[in-house]
Every structure is written in C-alpha cells, then in structure tokens.
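We emphasize that the prediction below concerns an isolated chain of 637 residues; any contacts that depend on oligomerization or on bound cofactors are therefore not represented. The input was used exactly as deposited, without trimming of termini.
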Amino acid sequence: MATLTPNSSERKLSKLEGIKERSAFLREPVATEILEDTTHFSEAGIQILKFHGSYQQDNRDNRVKGQEKDYQMMIRTRNPGGFIPAQLYLTLDRLASDYGNETLRVTTRQGFQLHGILKKNLKATISAIVRNLGSTLGACGDLNRNVMAPPAPFKNRPEYALAWEYADRIADLLTPQSGAYYEIWLDGEKAISGEEAPEVKAARQRNGNGTIFKDKEEPIYGEHYMPRKFKSCVTVPGDNSVDLYSQDLSLVLVSNDQGQLQGFNILAGGGLARTHNKEETFPRLADEIGYVDKADIYDLVKAIVATQRDYGDRHNRRHARLKYLLHDWGVEKFRSTVEDYFGKPLQPYQPLPEWRYEDNLGWHEQGDGRLFLGLWVQNGRIANYGDWKLRDALRTIIETYNLPMRLTPHQNLLIYDIDPSHREAINGILREAGVQSLEGLDSLKRLSMACPALPTCGLAIAESERAIPDILTRIRKLLIRVGLQKEEFVIRMTGCPNGCARPYIAELGFVGRAPNVYQMWLGADPHQTRLAQVYRDRVAADELETVLEPLFVYFKQDRKPGESFGDFCDRIGMDGLQAFSDGYDPSTLKPKRKERHRIRIYDEVYERLKQESLRSGKPMLDLASDALKAYLDGNQD
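Result of the prediction step, given as a token string:
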C-alpha cells in the first residue's frame, strides 16, 4: 500500500485503510453487493456502507441458534444544524412504516435514524430520502459527520441564523465529492439540492500548503479519507446545547458590539469514546486553539482536517481520533502544525461568556411574531405506544401546518414558524395523542439521554434505552426518600464505553460494563464543561439504590447553597465520596411514613390508571392523588 501520511511509513496500517483504498472512492464493494440477492453485506461492504450513512445490524432479540442472524440496516440522516423540512419529515415517517420498524429516532448529533430496514429495501429508502430534501451521505464513516449547531430558531438574534449558515457551509466543504453516492442510490442522477456558496467551492480547490490533493476525486480526503470519525459543530457564545467540548472541532462565532460577525474562536481535540480495560483510551475535552477572521474560516477548517488526516494514527484505530493527537503533541505543537497548513499564525482566543445548557422545551416566541414549540422525546424515540401516540401527533401537525423542525443534540425536537393562532389547536392534537405536557414532566427525564444499545447495536454489552426509564423512576423515588424531592441533574446512559449519549460529561453517567452491570461516572457540571470521573467500575442494576443512597444523603447534608449534584461530587472528590459511603449507616435514614387512605374506584378507572402508570413511570397512588387534588382545586368557590 502506498505511503499515506508524513508518519504512516513508521507503522503498519490497519486493515480498514486497505478497504478504503480499494473502494474506488466509496463505490466497491457496495455497488456490486447491493445488486446481489442476499440478506447482508460482506465485511468490506459493511465498512464502506457506513460512509453512505448506514450500519448493518442484527436484532439480537431474534437470534436463534443455528439460524442466520436477523440482519437489518440502520439508516442515519445528515442534517446540518438539525434542519428537517416538512417534506423530509413526512417522507421519513412514511418510510418508517413502509420499510422500517414503525419508529423514528432522533440522534444525539441532530439527525434521524431509521431502524429495521432490510437490505433489499435499502436503495428504495435512501433514494426516497435524497429525493425529498434529505441525505445520508457522510452520516457515518471515517470523515466529517453531521455538523451540529444550536437548534433554537431565534429570528431576532442574528448569531443563531449565522450558526445555521456556517454549519451548512462547513458541511458542504467537507462533504465527500465522490460520485459513488448518487451512482449507487439514484443510478447516477444528481438530486436537486441547494447550490453551495461560491466561497465554499473556491476553498475546496485552494491548495493552501498541502491541504488538498490536486486532481483527485476527493480533493480534501484523498482515497483514504480520515483516520477515524471527525465530529464538528458551530455555536454562539454561551450556548452549549451542542456539547462543544466533546467535538473534534468546535467553531464559536465572535461578533462586534454591533452584532456583526468578525470571526471564530477555535476549539479542537474533544472526544468521548473509550474502551474498557484499555487505559490508553479515555474521554477528553477540547482545547482552546485560537481565533481566525471570518474570511479565513474555511482555510482554517481545511488546515485542521489536513493535520488530522496526515498525522492521525492509521495503525491503531483506538488511538486514531484527533483527541489523541492533541494529547500526544500538546496544544503548541498542534497549533504550529495547523499554522503550517494555514499559512499564517492563529490569533489569540477571544474572551467568551460562561457556557450554559438550555433545552428550549415548551412554547417560545422566536422573535418575528411567530412561535416555536420544543417537544421532549424520551431517548429520541418517536413512536406510538398504547395511548401515547407522539408519532401520529407529529404527522398530523406537520401535514396540517407544513412546519419545519430542528432536531436537538439532546434527542428532542423544535417545531417552528408557528402562527400564534394555531397554538391551541396544536396543543389539542398533542393532548389527544396523550403527549405529556412539559409541566408534568419529571426533570430527571427531561435532562436524561440514552443510546439505543440492545437489541440492534452490535457494540452494546448492556441495556440502555430500554433500561433508563425504570432507572430514572427508581432514582426519583430514592431522592424523595432522602428528602431531595425536587432535585434535578443530568443523567446519561450508554450500553457500551463508546459513549454515544455522552455519559462522560453527565453529572451521573452509566456506562455498560456487562449485562445488567454499569460503570458509574460522577462529577461533570450541569452545563457539560467538565469531565466526570469513574466512581465505581461495576454497579449491578439491582444495587443502584444501595450505591446512590449514601451519595444523596451526603449531598443533602454538605452541599453549598445552589450547588448542583455534579459540582458537589467534583468538590468532594471520588475518594471523599467513597469514604463517606464506606462509613454510611442506612439505618440513620428514617423517612416519615406517608399516611394512606383507602377509597374505592371503578374497574374501568383502575385499568386506565394502571396503563397511565406504566406509560409515565409514576406510581398509581401519586397519579390518583394528583388527579383528585386537581379536581378539588378546580371546583373550589
């Protein structure tokens, strides 16, 4: 194999580098295997298929010994800034029924995932997405993934529109230029799409000290693309809805006193994936690198991509992310190398306000006389379950009012450009569908995230999406028992250490260690600017209350005014938390027994109460008490 990078000749390259080189710029073996009457792709096909936006999976719930695996494809969309026009949403909703498993899933990178697609329906599904204002190109694979941006549609704050605009442009700049995508999925027809900005097209062709491969089909990536995935975002000062410290590359808009864009602060080297028992792998937050004027942003992005492309580890894929290059080199060497590609020094990083996380759920004015509505979606799963019919409600709303949406980095969605006169009708559609109002939503659920994990993710070693609802209910009950009834903090869970739901920057993180066993991480801050630390390497799911009770009691006793749970854990330290836990006597906690009274209810009411309890995760007694109190309060003179 040919020498790839300035340092690649020193080590043998990984097997995947050869697969990429032999793919003819992402064509083979996918182009051949998609025509074959088989249920699955070869190993090489699986790897190249990722660049086209699809993972091959099998449903482990349906495995039968001695029979072929239940092969199916997951398709992921690429939507810079989370933008989903009405036409695309309705298409995805239809495809979920025609070819998928009747659900859509909002990802933590502001895209949608379709699950359960059979290989024979893959082409029809992808082509329908592309023909309806969507794309899956580059949603997976060793290249720049979906570019994130704050989803809030504030029309009276121009920096938000600029963040969307530059997310689109960075996505265009780093989109694969190979014709393979349209050749395979649309038989060579180039779908109608927005014309990219002339300055983006010009930047892609500017060589700038070796940032591109001249006369190659992929001028920025070459035939080997990136050593590993590359994640990026664009945000505005103070808005950390994008978890900017977890990204390979984060761009922060910097404006003057008149609100005019001047340039961008640059952060690089974030990433959260790790491997159990491999201490050389670790989560890492991005470093501040410098500042560039807005006219130079595309050349700067190319310079950082070229640095990772040419110096990232192509031998050991566990060591191939940009974060390890920053860790091994340090910021100064990294900055110096970027400047060599960039052609001039970077300017000093500009001061910024403190970062905050806001989810923008509920109703808001967007600043132009119209409204937007933020809807909580548990673990991103849009579906119909019993009396809870979020999927039906969304279809009705989008069909009726032709509204766009923005997906959030925390698996929720914002519907916007709503005429105020339609507000009550939309609320009525949601009520009819059993969609819980924001006022009735437990804050632990509101702030939580979980990855899909079992049964479809091939890397999962423990449950996540299917486990977290019960775990959140148990944690809330424990908080009530220790006297922290209204406490809220960020909880995230993943089924493996790759960290797709970003548990390492949660105040309380659970990472799959074995079936029904989790590693527990503590101590990140509520706004995701500090890494958590390992508190316990193994916690069995049924031991959760035993492990958490002393921590919550300690927190209640020794917290400072206004201190969050994550900040408390960080201040005390893991050794201090463990020392208190070791000396904790559970018998000292004697919660006051609630007085209960018996009343009779009709069987029909009882069954409805039981179903609502299962759906919401709230005890039947609490639901009945709340309903009676609301009725009595509403009938007082």
